[in-house]
Design brief:
- The structure is a homodimer of 262-residue chains.
- Chain A has 262 residues and is α/β, with parallel strands linked by helices.
- Chain A folds into two domains: 168 residues, 3-Layer(aba) Sandwich (Alpha/beta knot); 64 residues.
- In chain A, 45% of the residues lie in helices and 11% in strands.
- Chain A contains eleven helices and seven strands.
- Chain A has a seven-stranded parallel β-sheet with strand order 3-2-1-6-4-7-5.
- In chain A, helix 5 packs across helix 7 and helix 8 packs parallel to helix 11.
- The first copy, chain A, is globular, with a radius of gyration of 20 Å.
- Chains A and B meet through helix 1, strand 5, helix 7, helix 8 and helix 9 of A and helix 1, helix 7, strand 8, helix 8 and helix 9 of B.
- Strand 5 of chain A pairs antiparallel with strand 8 of chain B.
Chain lengths: 262, 262
């Protein structure tokens, strides 16, 4: 194909619409980061976040491969951990090529697009899509940060997608839904609250983890990381609101504090 | 993303289905040809045709960039002209990034996929999709070989798609139509467990409610029914498995029992 606007960058096409962030976790080749940035801007997206890019940042190869998506490359933010990269987001999707042995909802890019639009259509919410590093994909610990898994349906006999290709496959569905001005559908949230940020969810999980640590729960079970991941998966899946996080923290405090008085 | 089958190539996923050809007209970089071949095989396509590739054929860069799509690269046919390359085809689409000053029907990749399937479903028909060279796209003489134009909807302010990206965008719609939403979607549940019954969910909620009653939680809040409903909503939404219900009961017992001992 190859467009006629090879080096032209203009304002994002979708003014007024809140757009999701693209988070590349431990990307290896600068060239792939650049091609991913190009794919993002093809789809009207500009919020690029990098978690621990192998070759550091900025990266000349990334700029060269972006084919003019300079605004995306220059505004990219770098984080040390996935947790930090998603801290301000209310809704996170993880893109994976294979099934995980986890109880997590799986959606197609088409469904993912509808859900992102539904979440972003409500007030101040922010959403993001995680992509793993080349060849290995996301670690389970990254996937557990997500509300759902996106799987791009591909030939099961040859399922390895180029990183930028995966970014395009997911983001393009978002773009198609955006220009279609589809009616949002999805979770109905009461007006007086909003989806919890990942930071709030993590705070509650840490509260619970610390109390369970005190209670010897992990010692008995003998496998804290697995158990913590299981707990995270459950609460992640519930799409908790900020109000519900506060309720749960009240529950945890109540269960522990009162018994301490006995 | 990055699959687990990085170098694995197997038989096409869609046995019995006639698949369209992908025709790259005057491609310049071997790397782009290789990435296009990879994108094709991701979508179950294997019939690659090259019209006058700039750097000749075979091309080592193409093989390297194909990431294991060797069967596509090795079976590629080379032609001198577009006319020869499409000679045996009954239905041809031309992918372009911009409007042509021609009276030609324009379709989206989604519509193109439906038309290709309709044509290929009838007897001995063959179909193909044309892609132009990098930066310049197809010449008008190439486009006139086609029954219709495919345009991938992208950000009008940054519409230059990487060649392999364009190949993927069009071919993937064909693949999605081919598998016809047979891909599993929904909650992935590990084999060793199953969704909890309502009875199990209610048992856990009663356990939690009783402990909170003891802890004075509802008294403080002053509105037990509302609070119980809120808690039920959260856990209901999480689609818990039977195993997770047991984990949660362990959590409740652990938080209360240990503190009773203090």
């Amino acid at each position: 194909m190859a467009g006629t606007d090879h080096t032209k960058t203009t304002e994002p096409a979708l003014k007024g619409l809140t757009t999701p962030a693209v988070i590349l976790v431990e990307p290896q080749l600068g060239e792939n980061i650049g091609m991913a940035a190009r794919a993002m801007l093809n789809c009207g997206l500009t919020d690029l976040r990098l978690v621990a890019p192998r070759d550091g940042w900025p990266n000349k190869d990334a700029l060269a491969a972006s084919a003019g998506a300079v605004q995306v490359i220059e505004a990219a933010q770098v984080f040390e951990t996935t947790t930090e990269a998603v801290a301000d987001l209310n809704f996170v999707l993880a893109t994976t090529a294979r099934h995980r042995d986890m109880t997590t909802r799986i959606v197609t890019p088409h469904q993912a697009a509808a859900e992102i639009h539904a979440v972003l259509g409500e007030g101040e919410n922010r959403a993001g899509i995680l992509f793993g590093r080349e060849a290995k994909g996301l670690k389970n610990d990254d996937v557990t940060q997500a509300d759902a898994i996106v799987m791009v349906p591909v030939n099961p006999g040859f399922s390895s997608l180029n990183l930028a290709q995966a970014v395009f496959a997911v983001c393009h569905e978002w773009y198609l839904a955006a220009i279609d001005e589809q009616e949002p559908s999805g979770l109905a949230i009461p007006k007086e609250t909003r989806p919890a940020s990942k930071d709030e969810l993590n705070g509650m999980l840490k509260h619970l983890g610390d109390e369970l640590e005190d209670a010897g729960f992990f010692h008995v079970e003998g496998k804290r990381p697995v158990m913590e991941r299981n707990l995270r998966n459950m609460f992640q899946r519930a799409n908790l609101t900020e109000q519900e996080i506060r309720t749960l923290r009240g529950v945890i405090s109540s269960l522990t504090r009162t018994h301490e008085k006995k």
